[in-house]
Design a protein that fits this description.
345 residues; six-stranded parallel sheet; 13 helices; alpha/beta
């Protein structure tokens, strides 16, 4: 558009970003591997945001479009596109409702959930395999206040954060409150951690039964015989829910690759949640989470691993917001610091 430039848009946008965003990146990770570090080039606002060719702006939520299983009892939900990722705009209670419905009405393959945060949004820009894993996910919900805050600033509001480390306990709470038994399989974390998590889960949520645990070695995903044995163990245990804590993006890639073979109605890619359940790691205090400072808590616990990552994310994520804002600006779409106060955090 004549007379308009990125420099006229950047100052108010940067001010709003600084006001509304804290760089909390809950890329929960329990195992290291070759997927852990990926240097990203500096982004231009005119660079295309990566998208999967099959995506459409208003496709039905996966699980409804599929004819693999009995129909679910939920209406189709349009997704919201941010940074190339298509999010499901659901609250925690809605996600819990949907997952229990999927457990009651399983399909022929597992329905899996991913919870992208700032770090995942950065990785998404350069990794075609991660984009494909997201494209076949049944549910994509935002993990982290910066992503939700950015969505509101861009006038594409997500209702609230649905962190994986909160979603799993929420499912257990619903099981306990309703008396509905829930069978789970814990996959990930270090040796013995999943077993300790199972013990603590049984003590706190007696309606939740851990029917199996596994803590595969680093690199197991490159050994077909180990993967086959692991998938057989899951099938023999017949869980309602597979809780996968292998770290991002390994967990998303692994579940997507084996979704037709995972014998569980629902799979959750939830990073360090198993460590939290076992008491091996501790969440930030509630006051820090409310102030979007959980990233600081985690960084102080693991500075060597997280400082470089957070520094990279702090450089790249604002560029992603600028790129999306610029496209909205030049096409005449509303964008700016006015936030819809009717959408509660």
């Amino acid at each position: 558009m004549p007379g308009r430039s990125i420099t006229s848009l950047a100052p108010p946008l940067i001010l709003a970003v600084r006001r509304d965003l804290g760089f909390t990146t809950d890329r929960d990770e329990t195992s290291a591997g070759p997927d852990d570090s990926h240097a990203l080039p500096t982004l231009s606002v005119e660079d295309p945001i990566p998208m999967i060719a099959a995506d459409t702006s208003h496709s039905p939520l996966p699980g409804h479009a599929s004819t693999d299983g009995p129909p679910c009892s939920f209406a189709e939900t349009p997704r919201i596109e941010l940074f190339g990722i298509r999010f499901d705009p659901l609250r925690m209670s809605q996600v819990v409702d949907r997952l229990f419905d999927w457990i009651e009405h399983p399909g022929t393959s597992t329905r899996y959930v991913v919870t992208p945060n700032v770090d995942h949004a950065v990785l998404y820009q350069e990794r075609a395999d991660l984009r494909q894993a997201y494209a076949t996910a049944s549910l994509v919900v935002a993990d982290g206040r910066p992503v939700v805050a950015a969505s509101r600033w861009l006038r594409r509001p997500l209702p609230e954060t649905v962190a994986g480390s909160d979603l799993v306990p929420a499912l257990f709470d619903r099981s306990l409150a309703t008396g509905r038994p829930l069978k789970i399989f814990l996959l990930g974390a270090g040796p013995g951690v999943a077993d300790r998590a199972a013990t603590r889960v049984a003590e706190r949520w007696p309606t939740v039964t851990t029917v199996g645990t596994a803590s595969p070695d680093v690199g197991f995903e490159k050994r077909p015989e180990v993967e086959a044995e692991l998938l057989a163990r899951v099938a023999a245990a017949r869980p309602d829910l597979l809780v996968v804590g292998l770290g991002a993006p390994k967990q998303e890639l692994w579940v997507a690759r084996h979704r037709e073979r995972i014998a569980a109605p629902v799979s959750l890619c939830v990073g360090a949640t198993i460590d939290f359940l076992a008491g091996e790691r501790h969440r930030a205090p509630v006051w820090m989470r409310r102030l979007s400072l959980e990233w600081l808590h985690r960084m102080l616990e693991e500075p060597k691993r997280l400082v470089p990552r957070y520094a990279r994310d702090a450089r790249i994520f604002p560029q992603l917001i600028l790129r999306q804002a610029w496209r909205s600006y030049v096409t005449g779409a509303a964008v700016g610091p006015r936030i819809d106060r009717g959408v509660a955090e």
